[in-house]
Amino acid sequence: MARPNVREQLIEAGLKTLHLHGFNGCAVQDITESAGVPKGSFYNHFESKEALAVEALDRYWQNGAGRRALLSDTSVDPVERLRGHFRALSDGIVRNNFQGGCLIGNFSSELSAQSREVCDRLAELYAAWTRSIESCVRDAEKAGRVTQRLPAGTIASFLVNAWEGAVLRSKVEQEKSPLDQFERVVFASLFT
């Protein structure tokens, strides 16, 4: 079996290490050790740790494509699509013992004043995620399942923002209740 190339090893190790320890909680050496490659090889593939962080974000986003695909599955009721999407995210947080949380939220809180490069990519990811949710909310509107008279984009942005807050709190409290509260409030107040 072919050994993954060094760049790929660094991306995978970077994703794992950055997700678990944060951008400022690890050094390039920690990432290269996790990848099993010499430290000097890092700069042959990445201009900076920030450049790797952007690649790690992209990989994290790609890894979540399956969960987001549910949002556009028109064979499923739109409210159940939304519930299933957030439940799958919640299950992942619990499965990882509240350790990693959401890399998008983690980097948002950690790097907002530190890295324009990472923030620009985060903004793009938030916008794409919000559009996916907004499309599903529009389907729920068409089905008469939305209880609030708010624009679908506003509801979608709120869902992303509230979700990220619930994830951060679940990491602090090391328990699921913030995620459960998110689900209860959202699906009791915004949808029928």
From TrEMBL:
Question: Which terms in the Gene Ontology molecular function aspect does this entry carry?
Answer: DNA binding
Q: Which residues bind DNA?
A: 27-46
- Fetch the InterPro entries from UniProt: Homeodomain-like_sf, HTH_TetR, Tet_transcr_reg_TetR-rel_C_sf, TetR_C
Every copy of the HTH tetR-type domain together lies at: 4-64
Could you tell me which SUPFAM superfamilies the record lists for this protein? Homeodomain-like, Tetracyclin repressor-like, C-terminal domain
Q: What keywords does the record list, in alphabetical order? A: DNA-binding, Transcription, Transcription regulation
Entry-linked Pfam families: TetR_C_13, TetR_N
* Organism superkingdom: Bacteria
Name of the featured protein: TetR family transcriptional regulator
Tell me the classification of the organism that encodes this protein: Bacteria, Pseudomonadati, Pseudomonadota, Betaproteobacteria, Burkholderiales
